[in-house]
What we know:
It contains 9 helices and 7 strands, in the order E-E-H-E-E-E-E-E-H-H-H-H-H-H-H-H. By secondary structure, the chain is α+β, with helices and mostly antiparallel strands. The site of one iron/sulfur cluster has 17 residues, from helix 4 and helix 6.
Amino acid sequence: MILNIMRDGEKVSYKVAQKDVTLLQLLNEIKTTQDATLSFSSDCRSSVCGSCAMRVNGKEVLACAYKPQSGDVVEPLRNVPVIRDLVVDMEKALSFNIVATTWAVCRDALSAVSPEDAVINEVQSDCILCGACYSACPVYAVNSEFIGPFALTRNWRYVSDVREDDVAGKIAAVQTNGVWDCTLCGECVPVCPQGIAPKTDIDMLRNKSNVLGYMDPKYASFGGGLDFGAPSF
Ligand code: SF4
Ligand code: SF4
């Protein structure tokens, strides 16, 4: 089987021996038997840590879960700086978790949550911060200040938590370069290895924003110059 890897903008082809194994196993084979300089990130080998996200034939995958075909072209994630080969720098993308205030503010974190309420944000809690959604997002590709899919999904995870005491603060945090900048294109949905749909969560955040008095700035500009101002809570 031939595996093609984009290294520093050049396609390098490797003949590999193992069959019916994961991409991560083939990368380890190349590194240990052919080229020790090949660089990639990995850790848990079981789709839990999110560190081995990369692209194959233009689509985001986890290397530990993807079974390669001969001729596949492997590339690093898009929209984030490449450190070397398939290793990317996620620092800026991860910093949007701070911008989006993705933590709980609750006076009674240990209060009982009904099974119905627990289901509301169960899926969002499974995000492994792999970065595949930022790689697939066309808005993040052109606006590096866009808060982005996983940070917005995490914001919704707390906004929708019945124990959250600062919903207004969390919604305020995602008004600029956030919920209204997303085009709802859905590119972030099929690439998520955890079955999360950031697009849907962002739509929910828009609805919540409307309830709290915010509106899409694009529609605000149709108001004949009226100043809609900041909402009152
Ligand atoms: S939302 Fe999905 S694709 Fe995005 S970082 Fe989390 S697990 Fe990865
Ligand atoms: S739905 Fe929004 S967050 Fe998801 S890829 Fe499209 S623009 Fe990005």
